[in-house]
Write a structure and sequence with these properties.
With about 325 residues, this protein is α/β, with parallel strands linked by helices. The chain folds into two domains: about 25-60 and about 160-325, Rossmann fold (3-Layer(aba) Sandwich); about 60-150, Rossmann fold. The protein contains 14 helices and ten strands. The protein has helices spanning about 15-25, 35-45, 60-70, 75-80, 90-100, 115-120, 135-150, 160-175, 190-200, 220-225, 245-255, 265-280, 285-295, 315-325; strands at about 35, 45-50, 80-85, 105-110, 125-130, 150, 180-185, 205-215, 260-265, 305-310. The strands form two sheets. A six-stranded mixed β-sheet has the order 1-2-10-7-8-9. It has a four-stranded parallel β-sheet with strand order 5-4-3-6, with helices on both faces. α5 (about 90-100) packs parallel to α6 and α12 packs across α13 (about 285-295). The chain is globular. It starts with 13 loop residues before the first helix and ends with a helix.
């Protein structure tokens, strides 16, 4: 007897990413991949910036959210969607739900940037504020799903979400198949996991380097321990990276990630300033962390060219002004 396929496969395949790419055609933007002169000088190899901050909703998150939502049956969509988010995934789910004609409820930490909360609502999401951090919002969203029957769209371990995020790597390696190193911000691990699936399929020996801050280091700590670890979380400008990982995202990271570099919050602020001055782009902290890693030597001795994923640009104006007006 032929065994039944796993109804909830643990990891997406390269074929899943290719299917996501087709599904996303005409929905997401094929974002620019541009050489950074100052980072190339620092790294002593060509460094390319993947500008996902120019994506619809201002971050890469629409890729995974739409792929997951568009993959659902009409009956599943009719139940309504629910998710937890630090802000960017919530925007992606809200817009995806609007595009396919269903409703979405998004639980976010009460201290999430006002810009992100406002945009979730603007894309049609029902925003629910939760005291605490991302993990608290996640627990509230799961309780809501259990209570109402709404379908939970996980921010980083749903295989369809991860496959959608993997299209970032697909675009990079299609445009520049000579890229040898990828530097990727890491929160829950969905983006780096999806990119890793692509890199392992398309690139022989492509290295995958993650970037986190000391205050958002759950994946770093878990990889180092070889098991799920919940570190202490400090005040951060990288709210999109804060929160625990889960078994599935950790297992995928163990397969595809070569290492994670930790940087300080001050180094992220410095990277935000340099990206603005040198590149003319506004990067939120959760994106600038990857540039900060390069500035602190993540590519020293690495084979190039390298691509750095700038994941989003949704930062409150007051926070951005405060960072830009501070001297290095």
């Amino acid at each position: 007897m032929t065994p039944s396929p796993d109804p909830d496969p643990p990891f997406p395949t390269f074929a899943d990413v290719l299917a996501a790419d087709r599904r996303l055609d005409g929905v997401v933007r094929r974002t620019p991949l541009e050489r950074s002169a100052w980072l190339s000088q620092r790294a002593k190899t060509d460094v390319l910036l993947k500008l996902e901050l120019s994506q619809r909703t201002g971050s890469f998150k629409l890729r995974g959210a739409y792929n997951a939502v568009a993959s659902l049956s009409p009956e599943a969509r009719a139940r309504g969607l629910v998710t937890a988010s630090a802000g960017n995934h919530g925007q992606g789910v809200a817009l995806a739900a609007t595009l396919v004609g269903c409703r979405a409820t998004v639980f976010v930490p009460a201290d999430a940037p006002e810009t992100k909360r406002r945009r979730i609502a603007g894309f049609g999401g029902d925003v629910r504020l939760v005291d605490g951090g991302y993990d608290d919002a996640h627990h509230e969203a799961e309780a809501f799903a259990a209570r109402t029957g709404a379908l939970y769209v996980h921010a980083f371990s749903d295989p369809a979400v991860v496959a959608g995020q993997g299209t970032v790597g697909l675009e990079i390696l299609r445009e520049r198949p000579d890229v040898r190193t990828l530097v990727v911000p890491v929160g829950g691990g969905g983006l780096i996991g999806g990119i890793g699936v692509v890199a392992r399929a398309m690139g022989s020996g492509v290295r995958i380097i993650g970037a986190q801050t000391h205050e958002t280091a759950a994946m770093h700590a878990s990889l180092a321990a070889g098991r799920l670890t919940s570190p202490d979380y400090g005040e951060t400008v990288c709210e999109g990276l804060s929160g625990d990982v889960d078994e599935r995202s950790l297992a995928l990271a163990m397969r595809v990630v070569d290492g994670i570099v930790l940087v300080s919050e001050d180094e992220v602020r410095r990277a935000i300033r340099r990206l603005y001055v040198e590149e003319g782009v506004v990067a939120e902290g959760s994106a600038a962390v990857a540039a900060a890693a390069v500035m602190q030597g993540a590519l020293d001795g690495a084979e190039g060219p390298a691509a750095v994923v700038l994941t989003g640009g949704n930062v409150d104006a007051r926070r951005l002004a405060g960072i830009l007006c501070t001297d290095d």
